[in-house]
Design goal:
Elements lengths: L1 E4 L4 E7 L9 E6 L6 H5 L2 H4 L4 E7 L2 E2 L7 E2 L19 H19 L8 E6 L1 H9 L7 E5 L16 E6 L7 H13 L4 E6 L7 H15 L4
Parallel strand pairs: 3-4, 3-7, 7-8, 8-9, 9-10
Antiparallel strand pairs: 1-2, 2-4, 5-6
Length: 224
């Protein structure tokens, strides 16, 4: 585990090294959801089997109010159900997480041999929302939102990049309609979006892992 320190917060990061090469040229960064932590998505790394990738799993800087050991990128208003619009930009926690995540990504690229152009940013649920928020402002290779949504007005993308979105038809937490709204906003910007609606709930199923792996491998091989 390593850590990135901001002005008043610390971003802890778990890493998973490449399994067959000591000098990976690509990086996958995955952001966990509300109430989980960095170990949650780290457990997917062996199943992803991305031999030429180094993988990094940041932990949100704020403790979850109900889940022991859980973390969050920002809080939700009481009773929030994704059905009504809410101005999350007024949330100081979101502002702090957004700035810290961006600073860490820029620092990571500057201090390593893997540029942002060879970095894929992915996230699940609230992590997917952070991916769509922060990632568009950086020249990434690609982005992935798993069971995600938009928590504020979508920022303009600094470069074109493929975006993959995966969402469950029966998601009881984040309605699939929110993902389609995010897809439409991305396409209005001219971004290329591959959208997969799967017969599942709010989860990362084996089918999702397979799609994520193929997306990363296609980018590495220059297919997309």
């Amino acid at each position: 585990m390593c850590a990135f320190k901001g002005e008043s917060l610390t971003l802890k990061i778990l890493t998973y090294p490449p399994q067959q090469t000591s000098a990976a040229e690509w990086r996958l960064i995955a952001l966990h959801g509300w109430g989980a932590n960095s170990a949650d998505l780290l457990g997917l790394a062996p199943d992803l089997a991305l031999d030429d990738f180094v993988m990094a799993f940041p932990e949100a800087p704020f403790p979850h109010p109900q889940v022991p050991g859980g973390r969050m990128w920002y809080g939700f208003p009481a009773g929030y159900d994704f059905q009504q619009p809410w101005d999350f930009d007024q949330d100081s926690d979101l502002q702090a997480s957004r700035q810290m995540l961006r600073s860490w990504l820029l620092d990571l690229a500057a201090s390593s041999s893997i540029p942002l152009e060879h970095t894929i940013l992915a996230g699940f649920s609230q992590g997917g929302a952070m991916t769509l928020d922060v990632g568009l402002g950086l020249p990434l290779a690609g982005q992935v939102s798993l069971s995600g949504y938009l928590h504020s007005k979508m920022p303009g993308a600094v470069t074109p990049r493929p975006v993959m979105m995966v969402h469950g038809s029966f998601d009881p937490v984040v309605p699939v309609a929110t993902a389609y709204a995010a897809k439409a906003a991305l396409e209005q910007q001219g971004q290329v979006v591959s959208f997969h609606e799967l017969p599942m709930g709010h989860e990362v199923s084996p089918a999702v892992i397979s799609l994520l792996r193929q997306f990363c491998e296609d980018l590495r091989q220059g297919v997309r």
